[in-house]
Structures are given as C-alpha cells and as structure tokens.
Amino acid sequence: MHGVITIAATEIRIGLRNRWIILSSLILLAFALILVLLGSAPGGEVKTDAVTVVVASLSTLSVYLVPLIALLLAFDAIAGEIDRGTLQLVLASPVSRGAVLVGKFLGHVAVLAIAVSFGYGIAGLVAFFASGGGDAVALIGVGRLIASSIILGATFIAIGYIASASVRQTGTAAALAIAIWLFAVVLFDLALLGGLLASQDGVFARVVFPWLLVFNPADAFRLYNMSAIDAVVVGSNLGGAGSALPLSGLATMLSPVAWTAITLGLSTFILKRVRP
C-alpha cells in the first residue's frame, strides 16, 4: 500500500508540472467562465436560476474536454516510461505491476480532480454570485457535475492506459489517445445519429439505440447530468428520452464505472505482459 501511495504522489507532482495539463485546466476554466457569462445574460423568459443553466452548459462542455484532459494524462503512463528507459527501474521496485498501475491511476485521477474542481468550482461560484446569490441548493448541481466529471475522467484515464501499454513509443500512444477521443465523443454519436435517420421507428431506434447511448460512457455522463436538472427549462431534448433508456438517474453512471473497472483490469493484464 505504501508503494501505491508513493507512486500516486509522484504522478501528482509530475502531472501538476505538466504544461499540457496546466494549459488544459486554464482552457477548461476559460470556457466555463464564458458559459457563465452567456448563461447569465438576459435571453427571454427562463424560469430557472443561472447556476442551473450553467451546469447544463458545462455538462455538454465536459463531454469533450474532460476525456481529452484525461487521455493527455494517461497516454504516456507506460509508453513514456519505455521511451525514457525508466520502466525497468520502476518495475524493479518491490511493487507489483498491478500496484504500479493503480498508483499511477490514483495520481492521475487526483490531478484531474484538482483541474475540474478548480475550473467548475470557480465557474459555479461566479454564476451564483453574479445572479445575486439565489438558492444555495443550486450549488449542489455544481458539486454533482464535478463528481460525475471526475468519474468520466477516470474512465478515460483507464482507457488511455490500454493505449499506452499496447505500444512502445510515446508518439504512437498519443495518436491512439486522440483516435480514442475522436471516436468516443464525436464519431460514435454521429454513427448513432446516422442509424436513427436510417432506422426511423425501426428496431434500431426502439431497442438498439437506447442501449448504445448508455453504453458510451460520455453519453451516459451527459444523460445523467441532464436528467438531474429540468431539461425542458434549459432547452434540451435529452430529458424526454430518459424514460426510454434502459438505465436512468444515478444508475446511468454505472456505465462509466463499469468501463473504468474493466479497462483498468485489462490495462493491468497488458502491462504484466510488457517487457521493459
């Protein structure tokens, strides 16, 4: 256990010094504050508080930025060690390969949690005070968004480990990470949309589509957050689809949790077969 904590602490120090992660955190904060300003601007009759509108907007932003930040953290976790020639030294320590990966995972999740809490926490507080205080209960939505974003990020960190452990060059791992991000958050939804247009009211639209939507951890995250607020008020059409989904409410987050457990186990299996 001590070895796991030591590795996690090392990854936290490295992650916080990584300029890509610092830049991504600042970009996340900048986009969040822009959405706060847009959400608090007058725009007709919106019968809800500014914080709720901002949380709805940030949940869509998170689908794109949080997985990208997570993959930037994870893509060189193993391949980078091989490239630098330090993997053999790491594995020579009296810590199992599984414990090494768990330590890296905990450290990377901690770095991601700092970035998300910093960006969304400030944005939520700005929206709260910009709207004149309002109902403090609305801040619960910000906390829910931060927690679910960390879970989503943890999922893509674990997925990134598979790419990192499967290759021996950092550049190849980075290319795989970008490909994973592009497929999971862009191409997958485009494919679902194409299937809906082709199927209309067929079997795909009624049976297959709801399962595929929940199957994707990014979509499951978005559905959870949008179902937790008044989706009709904020102008989203996701709320109406909630009743047709195989999972609803908090159960929707079982998808990213399951993805995290499975991919972390798979990446551990791959790492055990890697020769430094």
UniProtKB/TrEMBL annotation:
The keyword Transmembrane helix applies. Keywords: Membrane, Transmembrane, Transmembrane helix. It comes from the Bacteria. The chain crosses the membrane at residues 20-38, 50-75, 105-130, 136-162, 174-197, 253-271. This is ABC transporter permease subunit.
